[in-house]
Design goal:
alpha+beta; 6-stranded antiparallel β-sheet; 642 residues; 36 strands; protease; 14% helix
Amino acid sequence: MTAEKDGLFEDPSFSADDSALFSDYTTPLSRLTGKVTWLRPEQICKSPLLFPDDYTEAYPKQGILGDCWLLCACTMLLKNRYLLDQVMPPGQCVWGQRGYTGQFRFQFWRNGHWTEVQIDDRLPCINNTPCFSRCHSPMAFWVALLEKAYAKLHGSYEHLWAGQVCEAVVDLSGGVAERWSLTKSVNTPGGKSLFSELSQEMRKQSYISCCVHETPIGSPEQGQFHALSVMEWKTVKTSAGAEVQLLQIRNPWGRRCWKGAWTEKGAGWTLLDPSWSADLLGRTKDGEFWVDEMEFQQKFDEVTVGYPVNEDHHLQSIYTGSFLTHTQQLSGSWVRGHSAGGCRNNSTYSSNPKFWLKVKEGGEVLMSLLQHGPWRSMYNSQKEQSLRNAHQHPYYQAIALHVWKVDKKRFNLMRTLNSTPCASSCTHTYEREVVVHAHLSAGFYLLVPSTFLQGAHGHFLLRVHSTCPTYLSAVKVSAQQESVGGEWEMTSVRGCWTVGSTAGGGRNFPSHGQNPHVPLVVTYDPGGTNVSLTLRQHSPENTLHAIGFHIYKVIGEADCMVISGTVCPVVSCVPHSHSQEVSVQCRLPPADYIVLPSTYQPDCGAEYTLTIMRKIPRKAISCQESLGQAIQETSHVSVMGL
């Protein structure tokens, strides 16, 4: 349904009020409560336009919303008219034209397909000026409208506070983007820096942004986690004949705030022929500055490189410049207790979804694994993450993609998974998408997407772009292949009962559910005992507590399950005993469970070890995988003069 006032469209699903601005009031944006008015462009200025005649005036300028990551991706659209028309379909009636209704349409790529978003053109303003993103020209409104449509897609403007440039690049192009570190050893097989080795063509065609992870002392203009765009890469010669690589950087703040050798009056320009200096400085707009390549790699920590996309929607390789003219994609899921096998450290790794990739001819292949993550306030997620383990992420799973070349006629799943992959995304990382680039010979390949944690539920999209014909299909493993004799797998979990927090006592007490929750996933029931648990307390003999434990079957989501006195355990190790350790052996059907170790009395502090032995249908895979670092979102904000 639509709503109209004075003949103009008003979007009832994204109202011009606080519900469109805020989600949980956890970001600095909450300070705007009650201060925002909503105006249409014709109420903001005379003769509004979508795009100004001078395209340099169309570049985004950041307001008081921390979405520099989105604005950097918007800059990409101005380099590619095809993508701009894809995101903002042409031919829409604008202000002053017959047929204008105040309604605009946008398209964003989400989880494998383009999704249309319709909005009205009422924009949030303070003092009759748009308070969020806008164009350098105050008469152009394409950026403000796109930002509103993207906010609607994610539920509110507040949900755009902090994010990853690579995610916005993918959402606005349907392509692929990679993040490269400038501070760590990220090398090609030849040992050269990936960023430095970008060809001249790729420096011109690809989209590049950059950011710093920490604001250097004395350099507040860089902004911690603030994203900037690389606009141009120029080779110049000094008066002495030496070549210098200069990069033009654009800050979405829209003001000049860089201090370096190549600022407007910097010492670097004295090294060049005056005509070179005059030409390059003459092309520098507000918010733009130049740095040489050495200064760039010293000052910035990370770059995001987006693959160019042509009008046939083929990606162009940032490694070779070749067009990846063949594309395949399939969706899949990690289902807890069925196909969420975790990383290769787990014996259940082989239960992960598996895919065949048939490469008909040798060629360049780009494989990407994209997880469907629930959208939440990233600013709030950063605060949550600081209170949790540094290697955890509040809304993405740590994911990876491994690839093996196989002989299908003599294929053995376990032998393959115990061998070294021919290509992989290396460590599991908390990214929305991980990318594997390889040159593959003709033949069959096994692709296994996985999460680091066993039992992590989620949905994903697997994409393959290649220069050669390929065919992607799901693997259907027979029951005979899955059942290869039973083995015992042992896991030990150390924990503690903390007075006033996790020392909840036995089931007789209402605080019982506060005891530590230890997940237990049973995947195999060969008949007879398939689970053995031992709880050992680390207390002196003369101060032993009465200990025991209960096993509860998970109903719904484990994270949301509340255990109270009315919830009955499926297995119990009671009565609580004043002994060093207690144990139980049992048979449990395949399912998700929670083990609650406890002392009988509440508020009895002690440390313990819970040892879990499970029967599994195969030998454990011999592998020790490590977990990558959690990502950080770019979010820096600039307060406009309003």
